[in-house]
Amino acid sequence: MKIVFIIDQVYRHGGIERVLSIKANYLSTIKTNDIHILTTEQGDEKACYDFNSKITFKDLSINYHKNKSYFHPKNLLKLPNHISKVKSELKKINPDIVVVCSHSADTYFMPFVNKKIPKIKEFHYSKFIEIDKRKNASTLFKKLFFKFADYVETKYDKLVVLNPDEANYFKSNNTITIPNPLTFYPDKTSNLDTNIVISAGRIAPVKRYDILIDIWELVHQSNTSWELHIYGTGESHYLDTLQKKIIDKKLEKHVFLKGATSLIKEKMLNSSLFVMTSENECFPLVLLEAQACGLPIISFDCPNGPRNIISNKNGKLIDMEDTKGFAEAILKTISNQDLRIPLGKNARANAANYSVEKVMNIWLQMFDKLKHSK
User: Fold this and answer.
1) What GO molecular function annotation could you give as one example from this UniProt entry (predicted)?
2) Over the Cα atoms of the chain, what is R_g?
3) What is the pLDDT of residues 33-64, one digit of tens each?
4) How do residues 233-274 score in pLDDT, each as one tens digit?
């Protein structure tokens, strides 16, 4: 089967790029498959994740102005060339399936290109963030844009969402829920005996690490022997704001911004608890990674990802904005290793449900149905 994945680039570290590498690599190991990845902004940059040498890459060199909307005149002028190049490449490859991964300009025209080829659109963000924007659209353009986006979504053969809650945000009936596959499942798990609580992800306001620092201040008032390690990178201004807050609260010996790491598995295996304070999530892969390492998880019950991964058997969901309840849950968990151990075992068992083989089997079944439907 010939499968084309379309994405803007694969040189920046991110969840979409990481998941694409896992899926494409798995599919490329099947002898009858021929995997292609089309990019628009890759240039001469090296892929940040490992891809099987059997996979064929092609950069279309569109190079949109990333600091502007795709509907800005400067980007709209690039659109005819983009569409023309996509049409040309698809004609050469003659794929059985096309999958649009990132939410870029391709999203809005791919269903109308080479209509005989089944098209799939993946959604890696929560549509929860659109609710207020849709209700309070301030301009006619925005209102029309949402109607246009809804129309485009109906023209895809399948819309892949990461959890069942997300399907409720779509007006079309072509959604299918396929979670992200687990990136690793180590042979060993954490001993849960280090005084380290870990959090990881993109350092951005939506992740609310500022709230996590407030929570840790409450934890520190009752327990001074544990440390909070935060892994990830982001805009320097926000990082500086977080560091200042840590210093102002006199937590600099207990809360650490550790920066990006390529050894997140090892860091998790050396921790005893994972925490998440995001404002919204879709399907946070980092939670599955933590569970694979045998870590209990405490997270705000934000829309919509954590509740699809965490239960009272493997962690704790906290009502949004309940910082006191969050701190109390941390204190209860870190003070009792006998509590952490069964939670960690159940977390590990839950992660096994998202193995690459199990998740990719769903993809393959969908591909096969779509291939024979047109």
Assistant:
1) glycosyltransferase activity
2) 22
3) 999 999 999 999 999 889 999 999 999 999 99
4) 888 999 999 999 999 999 999 999 999 898 999 999 999 999
Q: Rounded CA gap, 347 and 291, in Å?
A: 5
Helix (H, G, I), strand (E, B) or coil at 343: helix
Distance CA 230, CA 274 (A): 10
The string of DSSP letters for 5-52 reads: EE-S-SSS--HHHHHHHHHHHHHHTSTT-EEEEEESS-TTPPPSS---
| Amino acid making up residue 85 | K
Residue 67: both structure tokens together? 């600091």
| Collapsed DSSP state (helix, strand, coil) of residue 279 | coil
Domains and CATH numbers, the chain: 2-181+355-371 (3.40.50.2000), 196-354 (3.40.50.2000)
pTM for this entry? 0.87
> What gap in Å lies between CA 198 and CA 211, rounded to an integer?
15
